[in-house]
């Protein structure tokens, strides 16, 4: 095992950053703690507490006739609970048509947000806390799109929240961008239960809304983050490792837009070794927007 005294200050700093990205807040207790002994002591204390409890029986209950005791033992009828309210299921084809009509009716991003919040044709909305719409500004003509809201996004009501969002902020800052200067959004506006991948019907129901967002924002360059996002726009079944780092054109409502895919910040938190790949993609993105947008 390598001792900390054998590492240079730069190596120690890199190691601490690695642990921080992995979610480790502390490394050692101030004093050694025997967790096994703590657990056994806790179990023994619980057994002792149960053994010390006196067993009492109500004498009146034993004196009552057997028939009366049986009747008393019957649980009292509880009032019927009201069934949970749920949005009636809509056939997928009909839901897609309703989503398309609602999206096409919007003439601005604010109108589209209102239409999305009123739309009830996707079952994902029933389990999500928030409807996550685009944040930032379309004036920068740069759009960053992720796959779906995380638990942090759902809780805070904004895209790219929590640790993944903080990492994205640092990634953008490294190429001279800020989140309030661009537009951030997701393909799916509602967090799927348990962070599962959205189903193909769910993606198709949400497709008109994300396409309308892009059409109204009119970006000149799009950064696609994550597997689901890249596959959605590139129409491919390859993984993000096969789709990243190369400019492609995506067609949205008759408009062609240059787009490049990279790894999602959450994937980088899970596997920090992939940060070098993301950095390479960001440099390609920076060079393009510097020449074509920022001028």
TrEMBL record:
**Annotated protein name in UniProt:** Type-4 uracil-DNA glycosylase
The record's annotation in SUPFAM superfamilies points to: Uracil-DNA glycosylase-like
EC assignment: 3.2.2.27
Q: Does the keyword 4Fe-4S apply?
A: yes
Which residue ranges are recorded for the region named Disordered?
A: 47-88
One of the entry's Gene Ontology molecular-function terms is:
nucleotidyltransferase activity
Q: Which SMART domains match?
A: UDG, UreE_C
What domain of life does the native source organism fall in? Bacteria
Concerning its family, UniProt says: Belongs to the uracil-DNA glycosylase (UDG) superfamily. Type 4 (UDGa) family.
Alphabetical GO biological process terms: DNA repair
Q: Which UniProt keywords apply?
A: 4Fe-4S, DNA damage, DNA repair, Hydrolase, Iron, Iron-sulfur, Metal-binding, Nucleotidyltransferase, Transferase
One matching Pfam family? UDG
Q: Where is the Uracil-DNA glycosylase-like domain?
A: 133-283
- Low complexity composition-biased segments: 50-65
Give the reaction(s) catalysed.
Answer: Hydrolyzes single-stranded DNA or mismatched double-stranded DNA and polynucleotides, releasing free uracil
């Amino acid at each position: 095992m390598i001792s900390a005294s054998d590492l240079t200050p730069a190596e120690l700093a890199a190691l601490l950053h690695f642990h921080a990205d992995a979610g480790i807040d502390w490394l050692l207790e101030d004093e050694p703690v025997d967790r096994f002994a703590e657990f056994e002591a806790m179990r023994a204390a619980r057994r002792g507490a149960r053994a010390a409890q006196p067993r009492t029986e109500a004498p009146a209950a034993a004196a009552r006739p057997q028939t009366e005791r049986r009747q008393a033992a019957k649980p009292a009828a509880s009032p019927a609970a009201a069934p949970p309210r749920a949005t009636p299921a809509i056939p997928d084809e009909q839901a897609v048509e309703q989503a398309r009509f609602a999206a096409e009716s919007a003439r601005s991003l604010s109108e589209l947000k209102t239409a999305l919040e009123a739309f009830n044709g996707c079952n994902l909305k029933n389990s999500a806390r928030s409807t996550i719409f685009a944040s930032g500004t379309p004036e920068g003509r740069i759009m960053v799109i992720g796959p779906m809201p995380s638990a942090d996004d759902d809780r805070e009501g904004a895209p790219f929240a929590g640790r993944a969002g903080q990492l994205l902020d640092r990634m953008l800052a490294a190429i001279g961008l800020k989140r309030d200067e661009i537009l951030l959004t997701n393909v799916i506006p509602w967090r799927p239960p348990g962070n599962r991948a959205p189903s193909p019907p769910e993606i198709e129901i949400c497709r008109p809304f994300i396409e309308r967002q892009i059409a109204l924002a009119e970006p000149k360059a799009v950064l696609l983050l994550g597997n689901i996002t890249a596959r959605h726009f590139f129409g491919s079944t390859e993984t993000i490792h096969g789709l990243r780092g190369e400019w492609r054109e995506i067609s949205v409502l008759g408009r062609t837009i240059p787009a490049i895919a990279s790894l999602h910040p959450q994937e980088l938190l899970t596997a920090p070794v992939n940060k070098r790949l993301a950095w390479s993609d960001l440099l390609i993105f920076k060079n393009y927007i510097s020449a074509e947008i920022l001028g």
